[in-house]
Amino acid sequence: MEASLWDRGYAQAGPVLTPPECDRLISLYGREELFRSRIDMARYRFGVGDYKYFAYPLPGIVAALRQEIYPKLAAIANRWMEALGIEDRFPVKLEGLTAECQKAGQTKPTPLLLHYEEGGYNCLHQDIYGEIAFPLQVVCFLSEPGRDYTGGDFLLVEQRPRAQSVGESIHAQQGEMVVFTTRYRPVKGSRGYYRANLKHGVSRLNSGTRYTLGVIFHEAK
After folding, report:
1. Kind plus residue range of the DSSP H or E element containing 97
2. Which domains does the chain have, with CATH numbers?
3. What confidence tens digit (pLDDT) does each residue in 131-185 have?
4. Which of 124, 153, 192, 194 has CA atoms 20 to 30 A from the CA of 46?
């Protein structure tokens, strides 16, 4: 997975959540008390669909994913910083990153559930919520393609200096997890490593309903 992150800016982890866990997460979407805000994408021209940011305390499975995955990704993120000649290093535990975010005025949790119906999509974007942005994040696919929806692939577009953009379309099954870069990845050039900028989004749904869980590690203002 780390090799894929270096080479492409994303890595597919295969099934991580069971179907009952996916169904349980989807069922949380109607429980307003669990969330701090809801965003209608069309209102802000982000796309068509909606998403909700969880409030603290996070549901147990979301908190566990965040806690278990972060240390592994922090090690990769720090190797990226070293390759790019950036002095910043990320704490080895999530609590350390959260403390740094709080000092910078970023105090709101960022894990979220995203919901799309037929015709829905998400424009290419980056999840940057303040001065501190952890360079890797996760999406977990909660709906089953073909059964619950058609279309709606996860999209990544990489922009390289003085070159045309490269697009990736990821068709993932229920329970699968994809790790991908929040902003950029290091690319080896003739004079060392440089940054390749990436954005992510979702292609238009042809039919059905699609839910995903986004796990972002830095907090929002």
Report:
1. helix 94-103
2. 2-215 (2.60.120.620)
3. 999 999 999 999 999 999 999 999 999 998 888 999 999 999 999 999 999 999 9
4. 194
